Amino acid sequence: MAFTVTVLGSATPYPRPDNPCSGYLLRHGATKIWLDAGPGTLAALQEHTAPDGLDAIWISHLHADHVADLLPAVYALLFADLPPCKPIPLYGPPGTGARLSAFLSNTGRAPIEQAFAVHELHDGHRARVGDLELTSVAVAHGFPAFGLRATDGTRTLAYSGDTGPCDALTKLADGADLFLCEADSDEPSAVHLTPAEAGRAATGAARLLLTHVGHTITARDAVTQAAEHFPGPVAYAAPRAVFGV
Questions:
Q1: Catalytic positions, written as ranges
Q2: Is residue 178 a contact partner of residue 212, using CB atoms and an 8 Å limit?
Q3: I want to staple 41 with a disulfide (CB 3.0 to 4.6 A). Which of 8, 32, 36, 193 is the partner?
């Protein structure tokens, strides 16, 4: 059964004309999961599926470049032509539901529970979506943030979310067939990775896919620098690209 990740966007910290912010469509057979919802990714998602056709949404952390398109998604699901048969499971950090509801409130509390069934993540959180098991791993980003391992029991996708160097990254990447990892900066940081750090963190994975490459470094240079520290194939998460897990 096909297990793929489609890059909806990989820009940071704001969307570019040809590249939305962080967002990915994870597919396993008929199962479809929207992984992070950065600005511009709702439109890109609709090139592949309508929001009401999703089996789940998983959000790594609550910075706007990873979550902002949940706001127009609520309008699509509640007030337009895409009402879901039932609320879509939404997995996100503590406070996800309250944050969305507060932002969308006008004369009263926004009824986001009609669009999303919110489940708050914690380190080691597990969820079953279709044939995939999703395991969340707390990472270092200065406030609640999570990486993800998604597996069908045979193949595994690991995703760093946004993070600085931490021991959890080794756990996250170990044994993964594909490690989707941020490489934000060419300068070391407590809350983001350099390409070299991403390469070192990915050592236990089979393949490395760099995303969230910041404005201070080109995608080509990021791949080159990561490859100096990672023995396997390294690629860049270009928008619209599809990668097998």
A1: 65
A2: no
A3: 8
CATH fold of 3-244: Metallo-beta-lactamase; Chain A (3.60.15)
Q: Give the span between the Cα atoms of 68 and 113, in whole angstroms.
A: 17
Question: pLDDT tens-digit profile of 17-27?
Answer: 999 999 999 99
CB 166 within 8 A of CB 140: yes
**pTM for this one?**
0.96
CA distance 229 to 201: 9
Q: From the centroid of its chain, how far is CA 202? A: 17
Q: Which two tokens stand for residue 222?
A: 């990021």
- 226: amino acid identity, one letter: A
Contact 20, 11 (CB under 8 A): yes
